[in-house]
Write a structure and sequence with these properties.
The protein is an alpha+beta fold. It has 13 helices and 15 strands. The protein is globular, with a radius of gyration of 23 Å.
Length: 462
């Protein structure tokens, strides 16, 4: 294994599992260099069915250089409806060509507008709004340009094949243009925590500990060197006010750039409603949208997961098969085979003879070793795997009961596969400094978990 990039270690990612030198290179030189198509998990009825029973139109939209939230806002504005009536199954990168599903409640097909850089197809009607998870996964076609050593891509692929089979090397590794079965640690990608300023998990950790003041200040203050100078200055001013005996939140609000609307919303509540109690600080944090409130806690859970996964690698414990005491979940049987998706609702503790049986299931892609996304209903593993989970929680001063929180911050938790399997095809262009990767991933996993092994570059370049 190789040590991860220093910025990745800030979010709990400690290792690359391939030893080969990275290819370097750039992603997204053009939107067409990064293509993503959702593998759909939602069937629609005919568009002429009764809107009373099927109130939402289901759309398949191919977007070029559109942020998902921005497109939803543009679509709702063009329809003259509330943004709350537009939903989607997954958020995608802006600098890409993405094909994804949207639903529009209480609209007719002839009302759907034409929008620049968006190809909109009406698939039919569904009985409810789309929600996160209403997709099975995503198919990716990614081009890497200006690679320092594109030939290294084949070496990385061979090492990821070996990682899947838990061997030192692979005989007859896939050659260029062939499909290879590979695996990587199922890390939460850097973008989960903030690509420029990875603090989302820090806010969440403060929330789970009941440190509402620290949570707000971690988000509103706490400048990062990657931010524009004006933004850094505004955040430093917030930190100065927080250290003052008589903070001036009105002045801090005036200093904060208008584009940072969430920070401004929190400062507005502090300025108007005060900062005398923990409830005041929680009220300020709740000024942001509910999905962001949930994201704070989700990011904290993701950070804990990454730490547990890294510690497991540190100890030389396998990700491809269980050890005594591991919690194993079975594969989701309702998605295409190429997605290798775990079903966290079907778990079993690997003990005694079950270890060998579950190992065979894992080898065939029918089951997965898991680690917790900790919440109030989390049952930790046994044996050494459980020791790791408890040690990480103790170091962070957390326990499952801490996630019993008010409002959107509450979480019951779940389990997540520690291994990300896929079949990858690698093609090196004739100019030798560009190569392409084609692969599919289940929903909830990050393409960067795989791409980082190939490029071995800074997270911002992924």
């Amino acid at each position: 294994m190789r040590n991860a990039h220093s910025l990745e270690r800030r979010v709990g990612i400690e290792h690359y599992v391939s030893d080969a030198e990275g290819t370097g290179g750039r992603l997204r030189d053009a939107p067409e260099d990064f293509r993503v198509r959702e593998v759909e998990a939602m069937d629609a009825v005919d568009v002429d069915e009764d809107p009373g029973d099927y109130p939402s139109l289901l759309l398949r939209v191919t977007l070029r250089e559109w942020d998902t939230n921005d497109f939803a806002r543009r679509l709702s504005d063009a329809l003259g409806i509330s943004r709350e009536r537009v939903s989607w199954a997954g958020t995608k990168d802006k600098y890409a060509v993405t094909t994804q599903l949207f639903s529009v409640r209480d609209a007719s097909p002839d009302e759907i507008p034409a929008i620049n850089n968006a190809d909109i197809e009406v698939l039919g009607r569904i009985g409810r709004d789309l929600g996160f998870g209403d997709l099975a996964g995503n198919d990716f076609d990614v081009r890497v340009r200006d690679a320092d050593a594109s030939a290294n891509a084949a070496t990385v692929t061979a090492q990821l094949q070996a990682f899947l089979t838990d061997e030192d090397a692979v005989d007859g590794a896939a050659t260029e243009g062939e499909t290879a079965a590979v695996a990587v640690p199922n890390y939460f990608g850097h973008q989960r925590f903030g690509s420029r300023r990875p603090v989302t998990h820090e806010v969440g950790l403060h929330v789970v500990r009941g440190e509402w003041r620290e949570a707000v200040l971690s988000y509103v203050g706490n400048p990062a060197s990657a931010e524009p100078d004006g933004t850094q200055a505004a955040r430093r001013f917030v930190d100065e006010q927080a250290a003052s005996d008589d903070p001036d939140w009105h002045a801090a609000l005036e200093t904060m750039p208008n584009r940072l609307r969430y920070e401004r919303s929190m400062l507005h509540r502090l300025a108007e409603d005060g900062d005398e109690s923990a409830e005041d600080w929680r009220h300020a944090l709740e000024a942001v949208p509910r999905n962001l409130q949930r994201l704070f806690v989700n990011a904290a859970q993701s950070y804990v997961f990454n730490r547990i996964l890294s510690e497991r690698l540190d100890r030389g414990l396998p990700l491809t098969r269980p050890i005594e005491g591991d919690v194993v979940c079975f594969a989701d049987r309702d998605v295409p085979d190429r997605l290798y998706r775990a079903d966290p609702d079907r778990t079993q503790v690997a003990t005694g003879r079950r270890v060998e049986v579950m190992s065979r299931h894992c080898e065939r892609g029918r089951a997965f070793v898991t680690a917790p996304l900790v919440g109030t209903e989390t049952e930790l593993a046994e044996g050494e795997a459980g020791e790791i989970e408890r040690a990480v929680l103790n170091e962070l001063d957390l326990e499952p009961a801490d996630f019993d929180l008010p409002g959107e911050f509450d979480s019951t938790g779940t389990r997540r596969a520690v291994l990300l399997r896929t079949d990858v095809e690698t093609t090196v262009d004739s100019d030798a400094d560009t190569y392409e990767l084609s692969f599919s991933l289940p929903s909830g996993s990050y393409a960067t978990a795989l791409l980082r092994e190939y490029l071995k570059t800074t997270p911002q370049d992924l």
